[in-house]
Amino acid sequence: MQAGLSHPLTYVLSEMANLLGACGPSIVIGVAALILAIRAPMPTWLRVFSVLASVCGITAPLYFTFYVFVLWCLVLAAWLVAPRREARVTEPGPSLVG
Q: The organism sits in which domain of life (predicted)?
C-alpha cells in the first residue's frame, strides 16, 4: 500500500473494530446478566440493576447505554468480592464426643 487508506474506509474499519471489540462482548454479558437477575440469589437492588444493565449491554451498539453496563460490571464485581456476614448459630451443634 503506497497510497494509504481513504478516510471513509478508515472510518468504516474503525467502527467495525469498535463494534466487535466492545459491543460484541457486552451483548453476550448482557444476556448473562439477565440470566443472573432471574436465577441467582442476589439482593433486590442488585437484581433490578442487573436487569437494567442487561438491557444496556444488549443495546450497547447505541453507545450511550454502554457506560451503564460498565458501571454494573464494577458494582457486581464489588458485590462478589465483598465479604459476606454469616448468621451466627446460637444453639450448640452436635458433638462428636459421646
A: Bacteria
